[in-house]
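> example.struct
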């Protein structure tokens, strides 16, 4: 760590999805974790409530400078840069993540579903594509990983909608949906989800379910069985989280999977 980073304390063990489970070869797991550590450090800056937007962007620019030059400014950025060079992986994946984090530093609202999806193409899609390319998989696998990563990102937005609004004044729920159901932003601060806000959640979840179905439909035989099983595991996690968010109140208590849920998803993923 350095004076630029502002660690939140969150680690890969607290994510909805496994960051390279034991299904993935040990050496590749290390490289996936390096990618995660880079993303986590940058994300923590963009999510820091004590920094103003300009300061966040200034710090994130140092990550970008490290990626674009050989000078070591941010070690976590330099490490993932070296992996991308060694493995012949596009540096664009890391740059696109930074673009999303910079957007988070200043952009507080999303007008439409399409605008939200476009954000996710920078904040979520690069993660799946990095893993696919790291395994030297067929590029056709993007049709599977892209919608799955976007779905996971949006599910996370609903999980954290109250916290994001209260701490960062950030709302990922499309304003068009809020207007459609006459929802006021102040409702996100309440202890329970009111009926019209529940309708907003339902519409977002309905659209997200389509992404999960698309990912499931596009899944083809992959060269690496262990990667196929890993992604199937994550797909089952997305399905379970979707179901939980349909039936539980994210304002009352953060909706997360239990250990038993993860075991069930893992077992089901192995069967696919």
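> example.seq
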């Amino acid at each position: 760590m350095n004076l630029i980073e502002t660690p939140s304390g969150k680690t890969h063990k607290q994510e909805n999805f496994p960051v390279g489970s034991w299904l993935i070869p040990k050496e590749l797991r290390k490289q996936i974790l390096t990618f995660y550590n880079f993303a986590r450090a940058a994300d923590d800056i963009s999510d820091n409530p004590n920094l103003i937007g300009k300061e966040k962007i200034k710090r994130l620019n140092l990550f970008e400078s490290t990626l674009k030059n050989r000078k070591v400014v941010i070690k976590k950025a330099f490490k993932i840069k070296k992996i991308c060079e060694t493995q012949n992986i596009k540096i664009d994946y890391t740059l696109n993540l930074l673009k999303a984090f910079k957007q988070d530093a200043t952009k507080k609202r999303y007008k439409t579903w399409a605008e939200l999806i476009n954000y996710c193409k920078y904040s979520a899609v690069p993660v799946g594509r990095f893993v696919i390319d790291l395994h030297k998989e067929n590029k056709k696998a993007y049709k599977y990983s892209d919608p799955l990563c976007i779905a996971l990102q949006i599910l996370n937005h609903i999980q954290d909608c109250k916290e994001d609004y209260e701490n960062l004044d950030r709302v990922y729920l499309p304003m068009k949906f809020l207007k459609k159901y006459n929802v006021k932003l102040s409702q996100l601060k309440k202890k329970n989800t009111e009926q019209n806000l529940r309708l907003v959640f339902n519409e977002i979840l309905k659209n997200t379910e389509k992404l999960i179905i698309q990912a499931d439909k596009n899944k083809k035989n992959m060269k690496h069985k262990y990667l196929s099983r890993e992604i199937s595991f994550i797909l089952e996690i997305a399905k379970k989280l979707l179901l939980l968010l349909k039936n539980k109140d994210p304002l009352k208590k953060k909706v997360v999977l239990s250990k038993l849920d993860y075991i069930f998803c893992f077992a089901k993923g192995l069967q696919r």
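> remarks
The two ends are 40 Å apart (CA to CA).
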